[in-house]
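User: Can you help me understand a structure? I only have the sequence.
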Amino acid sequence: MKRGMLLLLTVLAVGLLTSFTFVSAQGYTPPAPASAPVPLAEGAQAQCANFNWDGSSPLRIAYMPPATEFNYYMAIGAGITDLAGQLGVETFMLAPQSGSDIAGQMGMIQDVLTQGVNAIILSTHDENAAAPLVAQAIEQGVAVIIVNSDIPNFPTPVHGVVGYAQRKGTFMLGLYAAGMVGGVANVGVLEGLPGYHSTERIGGFLDSFANFPQMQIIASLPTEWNVETGNTAMTDLLTAYPEINLVVAANDYIAIGAARAAQAMGREDVLIFGNDGDTTGLEDIAAGRWTATVNTTPYVMGQVALQVAIDCLNGAYPGGWTETPTVVTAQANVMQFICRPETLFPALSGEYTCP
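Assistant: Let's start by predicting it. Here is the structure, written out as tokens:
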């Protein structure tokens, strides 16, 4: 592909930096900076009605991420907690420590359904395992909002989905990556645990690379979404295939582990691309430890998810998927996020000079 076209694609990828607030055709104004909800697949929408809350008592909402080991989900939770404090809504978080503890999360959902909650904001690594419990929650009059996803057809109907366009985000980052290397690279892939999230995120990278015949996929290895398995998989990848010079990862934790492995092996020449907008990842990118990510602004996502849950309980939310913004983030623009520490969780580990 000609260099001019590659440059154009790179500019387009980095240029998606601005988000807008939309008003839907139904007259629903989504929480800023999210876009208007779009319908879920046929049969996937539960109606925002027949709830166990009649407006006469304070709201009680559970946030249930797949694990506490990932600061990303804590950042979503920080957004939920901060807005809940402003609105006078009671929220609490319940999650297993490990993202691979599917049975643990299912047990916790069962427990929450006995605790008189009015809504559950849920993210899970196993949609099929969670589906029967989600159906039970809805039967009990509990609003269920799936967060950090864009799944249009959760295995059982849900009231709403809040999250970013996963495949679109990594597709744009893939174009940016291809532009950096002139469309020529030996690519290694680090997946997450099998499931919708890993399929969509890795799929976006692969879709973009399909436009460049010399972006060769050399090998693909699974991880458990965390730094440790990202480190191990990267070590295995570069040992078996030293020709790899560009690696894409399904999330920032994998990318953080991959960068540490590459450094330990003396392979600072490998470009590494992630997905999330984790605080440590942003600081790593600012320091040049790895290359770029799709910043999915998790703190903002948490605030949008809580407001959508409340709007649903009030009968105002029309249902559907509400998209939250993403930004291709590299050294050129990472400081605009680091310089807004109030939107980051955990807190920055370093000190930075900001305008």
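Now, to help you interpret it: The CA atoms of residues 174 and 205 lie 5 Å apart. The longest strand covers residues 215-221. Let me know which part you'd like to focus on.
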